[in-house]
Amino acid sequence: MSKVSSYFNNVKSELSKVIFPIKEQIRTAYLSVFIVVTVITIFLAIIDGIMSISLSSIIN
């Protein structure tokens, strides 16, 4: 039983050391990820379009 008690005391101690992000940090991280994903998606769509056009012109 002392092992369980010791475990929960250690968990509580470690959890008190955790620094949770504030709303502004979460919002900034979300916007950064959204912008990067959007830019990569647009880039890949452009590359896909170029390759599709060039391949279809080679085939025809």
TrEMBL record:
Q: Name one GO molecular function term.
A: protein transmembrane transporter activity
| Alphabetized InterPro entries for the sequence | SecE_bac (IPR005807), SecE_sf (IPR038379), Translocase_SecE/Sec61-g (IPR001901)
Report the subcellular localization.
Answer: Cell membrane; Membrane
Domain of life where this protein originates:
Bacteria
Q: What Gene Ontology biological process does one annotation of this record name?
A: intracellular protein transmembrane transport
What keywords is this UniProt entry annotated with?
Answer: Cell membrane, Membrane, Protein transport, Translocation, Transmembrane, Transmembrane helix, Transport
- Where exactly are the transmembrane stretches of this chain? 29-59
Q: What is its main location?
A: membrane
- Give the way it sits in the membrane: Single-pass membrane protein
Gene Ontology terms: cellular component: plasma membrane
Q: Does the keyword Mitochondrion apply?
A: no
Please describe what this protein does: Essential subunit of the Sec protein translocation channel SecYEG. Clamps together the 2 halves of SecY. May contact the channel plug during translocation.
Entry similarity comment: Belongs to the SecE/SEC61-gamma family.
Stored NCBIfam families: secE_bact
Q: Tell me how this protein assembles.
A: Component of the Sec protein translocase complex. Heterotrimer consisting of SecY, SecE and SecG subunits. The heterotrimers can form oligomers, although 1 heterotrimer is thought to be able to translocate proteins. Interacts with the ribosome. Interacts with SecDF, and other proteins may be involved. Interacts with SecA.
Give the protein's recorded name.
Protein translocase subunit SecE
The scientific name of the source species is Aliarcobacter vitoriensis
Which taxonomic lineage does the organism of this UniProt entry have?
Answer: Bacteria, Pseudomonadati, Campylobacterota, Epsilonproteobacteria, Campylobacterales
